């Protein structure tokens, strides 16, 4: 082989290697493209602007579509989030400008026109994904044709031209927008057929924004200074509230509790002369009624606390962030299954402190205590979504995946935790011996009954978090993105602290009037904040623009599940803090 031939062969090999390296370096997986490369675009869903949960598949409206329509394979979390990504006719190759490109010619029949008109009347928007970036646009517009004092006439128009504005930095896409051209519309006021030529344009512009910050624009509106001031005002308000509660309880313990401890005597003759919480030391550690149910509440409450804390850890690590499709739902499902071992262990170990047998029933109750109501409510909501044809309706395959996940992961981990709790069981540590027969509780005024204590125990924590709750509901049932998870985590810690402090105070007041049935009441008082949270959900819904059975069902159904979870978590916190306090004071009087 001559030198010239060897040189040519070397150049060919080098060019092939460079071509391969170029194709490897540019792909949808690493979001790097060369000029003219195909960039994946998927259409997702359409829906009314005022009802975020009421969404339908994109081609439920008679848009131009490929034949056949190919659905993108989606994760469990994407399906649970209502995403239904499918292919489209739009071709937005990297850095290729297009002007008035024809998408398709379509004959809209009367029924098609009626569908588009209903969508325009209800402010329908569409959502698409381009290079994993979500963007939105409106289907059409409404204009006033003419009006008098008696009658106003409206005309409805469909956008037949969409302009895509794309920003790029180097070989990466940073931002994308879709804008319907108000000058290129079709009148769809009447149910008459019409021929429409759908077109689109693509305009590419450079930007200096970095690829790592391209998701920041979705949260920019939620991070305005006024919103940050409201967040910090809520945080400062909560801190002041908890400081006042700590000061109040400190004053209570300094002046009354220490005096009570000094005057206590354990002699039988003097025992009858004692009054208040010292008088019932033989009944205060009597096991509660419905012991298995109580243990299950403690187990599930501890599990949900672990799940929420794990979610905050994932947020801090950057794994969960806004518009990372389906990751939040996926994380919730997997974490619930994994933390079931915590529920089993806590339930069985707590039950075995009272009795060595029957812990299996408590673990079984723990397995269905939250999953049972969630399954029932979810099934009802799925039936409603199916009747509407909404994307929130879960396919049969997804339902089977959830059932199999619960059967082959959640239940085994729950049982494993229960077995571990039984093997490492310990006896209940009671500073005072329990008498054989319970002492009769003296008559109490109405304001010392459980409902009044629940109102006090729930209202104060709720007042400390109400502003943050408004932002949370606006994120769940609106389009605002919650951008300050650190403040949300601090508020969650403050909520737990206030609940614990109030539960201790209310338990002390209850014992002071010789009412020894504090076990269940501490759970109800601690979890009563969830009742106020659900009541605020009703207020939030009435003040919003949401309407319709589907949106109503989803708002109140899922909020009921969320508030029920908070009831179990805060009820567990209320009892645990009260138990520590009761053990402390009776251990102190015993040492005297």
Automatic annotation (TrEMBL):
<dbReference type="GO" id="GO:0072657">
    <property type="term" value="P:protein localization to membrane"/>
</dbReference>
<comment type="similarity">
    <text>Belongs to the nonaspanin (TM9SF) (TC 9.A.2) family.</text>
</comment>
<feature type="transmembrane region" description="Helical">
    <location>
        <begin position="523"/>
        <end position="542"/>
    </location>
</feature>
<keyword id="KW-0967">Endosome</keyword>
<dbReference type="InterPro" id="IPR004240">
    <property type="entry name" value="EMP70"/>
</dbReference>
<feature type="transmembrane region" description="Helical">
    <location>
        <begin position="293"/>
        <end position="321"/>
    </location>
</feature>
<keyword id="KW-0732">Signal</keyword>
<feature type="transmembrane region" description="Helical">
    <location>
        <begin position="232"/>
        <end position="254"/>
    </location>
</feature>
<feature type="transmembrane region" description="Helical">
    <location>
        <begin position="445"/>
        <end position="467"/>
    </location>
</feature>
<keyword id="KW-1133">Transmembrane helix</keyword>
<keyword id="KW-0812">Transmembrane</keyword>
<protein>
    <recommendedName>
        <fullName>Transmembrane 9 superfamily member</fullName>
    </recommendedName>
</protein>
<feature type="transmembrane region" description="Helical">
    <location>
        <begin position="396"/>
        <end position="424"/>
    </location>
</feature>
<feature type="transmembrane region" description="Helical">
    <location>
        <begin position="554"/>
        <end position="582"/>
    </location>
</feature>
<feature type="transmembrane region" description="Helical">
    <location>
        <begin position="487"/>
        <end position="511"/>
    </location>
</feature>
<dbReference type="GO" id="GO:0010008">
    <property type="term" value="C:endosome membrane"/>
</dbReference>
<keyword id="KW-0333">Golgi apparatus</keyword>
<feature type="transmembrane region" description="Helical">
    <location>
        <begin position="333"/>
        <end position="351"/>
    </location>
</feature>
<keyword id="KW-0675">Receptor</keyword>
<keyword id="KW-0472">Membrane</keyword>
<dbReference type="GO" id="GO:0000139">
    <property type="term" value="C:Golgi membrane"/>
</dbReference>
<feature type="signal peptide">
    <location>
        <begin position="1"/>
        <end position="26"/>
    </location>
</feature>
<dbReference type="Pfam" id="PF02990">
    <property type="entry name" value="EMP70"/>
</dbReference>
<feature type="transmembrane region" description="Helical">
    <location>
        <begin position="363"/>
        <end position="390"/>
    </location>
</feature>
